[in-house]
């Protein structure tokens, strides 16, 4: 197919949208094809029975270290949908006691910016804290070869070998691994888990400033992406599932939809891993494509369960917008979603909105709603005996929420050009170290775009890596950056 045909990006989640925008900004003709009616992919709201307005498919949390995702929002003039903490504050709830103590960033440089508050929190004992200090330094100093070499070790084994106490594992290390990698430490690749702590929590003083969505997920993100893609000249086709890749003489030269074939100079797949594997193994697919599909199947996914409880009034103390619940396998974190939302965004809710994201929810997928509600009520009634009652309660199960980062995952994650056939890979599962997150997706999309530009001889993108800035994109916001909302 000639260079005159557009680049076809399949999948309009964050990866596909970032990829399409980045390519259009470098003069490429791009068509973006999305199966559903909205852009934004897994960052979505859905309609629940009995509720007037759409509700998050699951709580979505950003961090200040999500530089590329925040830059994507800035490119789309959508800075206002996120509010970032002015200072890292991670509150922990001891459910039995009903007490909250908070890890917060102080004035010391990383990796010691959390040390002073860590010494004061009540949910860890002095012995836990002393052992943790040693590991914090080790993670901070760990070089990249050593980190990537830990892919066959579970993070739990690594923590135990590093002298961590069981309490610090269950109350500090494991909950953070679950939230960020969506898998528990007994299965997580130590390479992936170490990345989170080395680059994230202990890497930079402001890295873990939490970012909350102040608006509806789909209603704010999808129109902003569509508007920006259109003004960049990207042709967007929504409600158009790609059914197969079109191959001629060993090369993919287009995609097939129910409306026919769309010719492409290059096809970039930013679809979920299972869909990508199916498209890569269509009739006439190359050995390399089959190998990538096998690797994606080997990676697999892990689940998340979203709980939305609407109460007669607020649960958490004023000024506390979320808490991590110590020693709770299901009700891991409580978010006051009503407090996060802007005033004008609360219309149509049946009550005060509390949201729980159950990470690595695979063991609980077959629990019925009543059992999950019992767990929720037990935690709320124990920690907050005066809590206002529940008006309505909903459970959403996302079986394939994220790519699984079990041991050995790093080896299975493909590079953008691994499938050959003229196809480029760009979903949140490609090998960019970042876990399957909004930031991972944004970086994956840019990595795919850079791979194509390099192929097309653009010297600016020779050897481009996702840690490099994308030329022309606005800066990622440091604390106090103009135009960004903080709280
Ligand atoms: C419940 C839940 C909670 C989460 N919480 C967080 C969080 O707190 N923080 C965080 O950073 N991340 C979170 N994530 C993960 C994050 O949402 C994803 O990692 C990220 O959005 C993935 O982006 P993506 O573009 O790679 O893939 P997707 O968002 O899955 O986008 C792929 C797109 O491809 C489309 N598509 C599929 N098949 C076809 C086809 N045949 N033809 C055309 N298009 C197709 C899909 O409709 C979709 O729009 C969460 C995910 C879930 C499910």
From TrEMBL:
Location of region: Disordered: 464-487
Amine oxidase domain mapped to chain residues: 14-453
Stored SUPFAM superfamilies: FAD/NAD(P)-binding domain
Pfam families listed in its UniProt record: Amino_oxidase
Domain of life of the native organism: Archaea
Single Gene Ontology MF annotation: oxidoreductase activity
Name this polypeptide is given: Squalene-associated FAD-dependent desaturase
Organism: uncultured marine group II/III euryarchaeote AD1000_43_B02
């Amino acid at each position: 197919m000639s260079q005159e045909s557009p680049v076809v990006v399949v999948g309009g989640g964050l990866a596909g949208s970032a990829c399409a925008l980045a390519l259009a900004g470098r003069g490429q003709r791009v068509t973006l094809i999305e199966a559903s009616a909205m852009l934004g992919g897994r960052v979505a709201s859905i309609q629940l029975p009995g509720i007037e307005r759409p509700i998050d498919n699951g709580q979505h949390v950003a961090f200040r270290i999500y530089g590329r995702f925040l830059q994507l929002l800035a490119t789309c003039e959508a800075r206002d949908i996120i509010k970032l903490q002015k200072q890292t504050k991670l509150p922990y709830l001891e459910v039995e006691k009903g007490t909250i103590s908070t890890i917060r960033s102080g004035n010391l440089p990383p990796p010691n910016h959390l040390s002073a508050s860590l010494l004061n929190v009540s949910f860890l004992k002095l012995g836990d804290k002393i052992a943790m200090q040693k590991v914090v330094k080790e993670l901070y100093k760990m070089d990249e070869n050593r980190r990537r070499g830990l892919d066959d070790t579970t993070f739990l084994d690594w923590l135990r070998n590093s002298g961590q106490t069981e309490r610090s594992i269950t109350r500090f290390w494991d909950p953070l691994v679950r939230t960020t990698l969506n898998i528990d430490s007994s299965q997580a690749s130590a390479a992936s888990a170490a990345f989170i702590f080395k680059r994230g929590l202990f890497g930079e003083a402001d890295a873990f400033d939490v970012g909350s969505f102040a608006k509806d997920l789909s209603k704010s993100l999808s129109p902003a992406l569509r508007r920006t893609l259109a003004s960049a000249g990207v042709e967007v086709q929504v409600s158009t599932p790609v059914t197969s890749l079109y191959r001629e003489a060993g090369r993919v030269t287009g995609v097939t939809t129910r409306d026919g074939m769309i010719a492409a100079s290059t096809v970039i797949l930013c679809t979920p891993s299972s869909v990508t594997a199916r498209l890569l193994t269509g009739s006439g697919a190359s050995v390399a494509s089959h190998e990538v599909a096998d690797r994606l199947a080997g990676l697999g996914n892990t689940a998340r369960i979203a709980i939305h409880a609407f109460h007669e009034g607020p649960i958490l103390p004023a000024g506390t917008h979320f808490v991590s619940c110590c020693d709770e396998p299901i009700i891991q974190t409580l978010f006051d979603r009503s407090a996060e939302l802007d005033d004008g965004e609360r219309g149509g809710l049946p009550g005060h909105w509390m949201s729980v994201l159950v990470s690595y929810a695979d063991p609980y997928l077959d629990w019925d709603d009543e059992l999950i509600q019992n767990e929720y009520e037990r935690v709320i009634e124990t920690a907050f005996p005066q809590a206002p009652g529940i008006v309505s309660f909903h459970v959403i199960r996302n079986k394939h929420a994220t790519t699984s980062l079990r041991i050995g995952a790093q080896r299975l994650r493909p590079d953008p050009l691994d499938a050959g056939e003229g196809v480029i890979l760009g979903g949140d599962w490609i090998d960019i170290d970042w876990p399957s997150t909004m930031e991972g997706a944004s970086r994956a999309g840019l990595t795919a775009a850079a791979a194509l530009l390099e192929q097309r001889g653009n010297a600016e993108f020779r050897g481009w890596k996702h840690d490099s800035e994308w030329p022309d994109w606005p800066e990622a916001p440091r604390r106090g950056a103009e135009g960004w909302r903080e709280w």
